[in-house]
Amino acid sequence: MSAESPESKTRSRVFATITIVLSLACLGWALHGVNWKELGEEIKELDWRWVALAAVADILVYVIQGYRWGLILRPLGGATTWTSVRSIYVGLFANEVLPLRAGELIRCFLQARWSGIPTSVTLASALIERIFDGVILIVGLFFTLSYLRHYPLSHGQARAIGILSDGSIFLGIVLLICGALLAVAMFWREQTLDALLNARMFSWVHVFVEDLHRIGHSRYLYFSALASIPYLLMQVVPIYALMQAYGLEEASWARAGALMVLLRLGSVVPQAPGNVGLFQVLSTLGLTLFGVPQAMARRFALILWGVVTLPLLFVGFVFLVATGAKMAEIHREAKAEMRARQDAAAKS
Fold it and tell me: Model pTM?
């Protein structure tokens, strides 16, 4: 396996540094003016039955995702719900401790190791997952924006809604293009794809095309698409449960769903470990749109982050320990595997 070049290392470090600095700037804004004493009192007054429900639901979200991922890979054999869940939780732990969402690569690498499926296939299946999620989230964002427009908005809030609306159109276009490419890769004959993607600069695409073609005609692909609905709906439960635990007057399933859509779309952006910064900003802005006072929204955002992050850290750490390997070692091996596949594709 080829070593990472000094130039590549420098680019990665610069990008990671910029991402972390921006995330810390977001966190600084979210923490500005927080009354820590009042926050501590609010934590003590939480209804811990609702908090427990939020934590359990947060864990079950990724069990459902593991089931869905197993369905996508079922035609290839080897992958099960168990191997998928294990991979996902180690990846989630990596996302909490490593920058730039490195857990996505790590979970695909571990799935390949444990199931015997090529890494390119697991990477392609992760792309399919993102297409499924994107379709539902774009629809959810459309209804979220329509829902938010019913509230009395300040000029700044109306402008933010407008930006989100424009962003949803852009994301929809990107999703349409990705979906079209995905459909082509899965359902067109490989000879036709070779003719379309013959340029050397696109040689890496062939790796994904071959693997997507193997998955595309399985009925389990459609079952996994349906499983995306409960996977995303379950993510509303921790937010709603914590709204109830906090005693938020503005608590409702619709508002929890709207906040979930904003947070999920925000998680796509590369950021510091643990979604620190952008998570708090989006939570605060979303809650203020519902009429929650900004000071209270800032405190609630911190509690929400803790409730949806700490259970994943704990479960992910348990699965990591069970692998018998260190996170740095897994990350290094996953990157080396990716570089080797890219080098092989470039030589083809």
Answer: 0.86
